[in-house]
Design a protein that fits this description.
The complex is a heterotrimer of chains A (154), B (448) and C (145).
Chain A (H helix, E strand, L loop, with lengths): L2 H19 L4 E2 L3 E3 L8 E9 L1 E9 L1 H12 L8 H24 L4 E3 L3 E4 L12 E8 L2 E11 L2
Antiparallel strand pairs in A: 1-7, 2-7, 3-4, 3-5, 3-6, 4-8, 7-8
Chain B lengths: L2 H16 L10 E8 L2 E6 L3 E7 L12 E7 L2 E7 H4 L13 E8 L2 E7 L1 E8 L19 E7 L2 E6 L1 H4 L2 H16 L1 H10 L8 H17 L8 H14 L10 H7 L14 H10 L7 E7 L5 H13 L4 E8 L2 H4 L6 E2 L12 E3 L5 E3 L1 H4 L2 E5 L11 E6 L8 H14 E9 L11 E6 L2 E6 L1
Parallel strand pairs in B: 2-10, 5-7, 11-12, 11-17, 12-16, 17-18
Antiparallel strand pairs in B: 1-2, 1-8, 3-6, 4-5, 6-7, 9-10, 13-15, 14-15, 18-20, 19-20
Helix pairs in contact in B: 9-10
Chain C lengths: L25 E5 L3 H13 L3 E6 L2 H11 L5 E5 L7 H11 L5 E5 L5 H9 L3 E4 L4 H11 L3
Parallel strand pairs in C: 1-2, 1-3, 3-4, 4-5
The chains are: A alpha+beta (154), B alpha/beta (448), C alpha/beta (145).
Amino acid sequence: MRVEYINPFVEAAYNILTEVLGGEIKRGELYLKSTSMPVMGVAALVGLAGDVEGRVIFDMNMDSAMKIASRMNNEELKSFDDLAKATITELANLITAQAVTKLHDLGFRFDLTPPALFTGDNMEISDHEVEALIVPMETSQGRVEVNVAIRDRM
Amino acid sequence: MTGVESRAADIKEKEADDGRGERVAVIDYKMVTFSLAGKDYAIDIMQVKEIAKAGRFTYVPNTSPFVLGVYNLRGDIIPIIDLRIFFNIPTKARDSDAIENMIIITVDEQTFGIVVDVIDKVVGISRSSIQPPHPIFGDINIKYIHGVVENQGRLYILLDVERIFSSRVKAAEAEAVAEAEAAPRLAEKLAQTVDPVKAQTRDELDISFIRDALAALIKFYVTSVNDHWVAARYREWRDIRAAGDIQLNSEEDARQYIGSFYSPETAAFWSEAYIDAVAAILPANQAKIINVWIIGCGKGYEAYSMAVLLREKYPSTRIRIYANDSDLLAISNAPMLTMPESAISPKYRPHLVQGVGGVWTFDQSLKDMILFEYHDCTNQNAVPTMDIIMARDVLSFMNPKQQTAMIADFTEKLKDNGVVILGRNEAMPQHSGWLRSVEGEVVAFSKE
Amino acid sequence: MISKQDFPTINERAPEGVRVDGTSFKVLVVDDSMFVAKQIGQILTSEGYDVVATAVDGLDGVEKYKELCPNVDLVTMDITMPKMDGISALEQIMAFDKNAKVVMISALGKEELVKKALLLGAKNYIVKPLDRKKVLERIASVLGK
């Protein structure tokens, strides 16, 4: 992944999570994964287009997803219902959008496609063998992995 | 007559004197006889587990000199002792290729092997015929002799194995076994020692230990890409290190060993001489776009040096440099690499601009030539076909499987008239379809 | 002696969503995210605004606006939506009613799209994540207070 793209995603994840969750956010060590499949159970995906092709996935387990959705709604949600799903989707949107805005300021033109939400049993994200950058974020509600797979359009 | 012989004669006479012609002595003691430095010895058969022949022992460093090494006895790792060294009997040096005779002994539930010259036979005697030791048998310390016994004209020195394998030897043995067991890879080697046919020289064994240590300690993998250098380096290393100190026991040792491996002009902007050498080895290229792949670009010195080189050599061609590294910390500042004023030479000057605080960076059009990516090249590579691939000192730090995959990738991604430049001490495997060309310090490979 | 206690309402801030005459401002919320719509709704309702309808995409938004007009004072319009995005919906609403008051809600700041929307007639924009104070300020300013 292009070096200049990395910081905007890291900063956006940190900023948004801090703002919407309120607690302490810790960023883990970044690393590269040979396959971009999400692994924890709940995945919110935002597509990227423009100067690049690719997508950002927000990967977390169900327990964290429920806690995050509850926190963002300021009420305890009892199940991963439409409201909870919409909440996690919106979180993905916010982080990606802020990253894209920063990249815009650096001169890179990215577009976002509307987000999609996947849960455990039907995880079928098509690009298995694409390398992904993983930015692990530890929140009071659990771990969220920002999983970015981007390729410059040749 | 010597003292011994007169004693033996006495015994015979005693028997004879008892004699109503009947033999009184009963065979109630059996011993295994063998020879060591020309003398006959024997050991109580009750202490002998078995007899074995072995091609070679696995040498274990850092143990006492009489411990020759360890041997894999059907899964048990046992120490092997050379009694001649233990007894300080002057002997010729052993030929390490030879097949040795061993007597495997068990004392106090400990098993070990003794190397001997020739194993003779099992002899049955009467316990009463064992005579106490006499100082005249000065070769070995008397305390290790249980007694002497005569049988069919030969005199055997009966060893007191329990005394011999007392604390001094036991400590040495424990050390040897601990050393051997601490290194699981040694166990694999031991499995090989059981086959006496494939004798290995001491050198080959040492090199193979060094190969393992390099991989384990600093992730440097010896394969046909670099083994010629590793072997040449071994000969040097053997000469500069003390005899017992050849093995690589620490990361520091390992780094010292490969200290001379690295290519010149690493982690620095290339000198004008090196730029000229690389430029000379590149083939003529009329293409409109030249693609360059730099693997393991680190902080970016190589990428910028190549950019300056290519701008000079192909002024009207569009250059695209794909620079990868899997070390995020190293590559993250590459897009903004600066050049200290003192390092600026004529080749570089035209491409530099001075920015905030008097710092010199490369001009935008040169920077635009380079795409720095945080990418692990052992994952799938999505680069287009390449005119030039720079992989200096990179393959050697990938495991053998990754090296093979990377070379296959090169074959696939390289244009027919393209070149691959490896490290100074690296080479494409022979007979694999690559032609080698040299220009000073620079070695390049192209497709046959 | 007359004291503050006699006139308890003097120092209370009047909810911004309520007019002097006691009627609430009517708001149409257009957003494809159930979460965002709920958030905006909660912020507005707590301040006395009356969220009269919610639309889930641009097309739905335009239709509902046409139905409700003139009983809608303000529209909050998300930019990225399926079927018809916020820019197109804005265009259509402005064509239908040149006095429509539309506030764009966007996850992207200083974006080309936001600029475009303002040029097309949107009165203001709010960047997500939503900050209650900012939301209320911007909406109040659009409603001319």
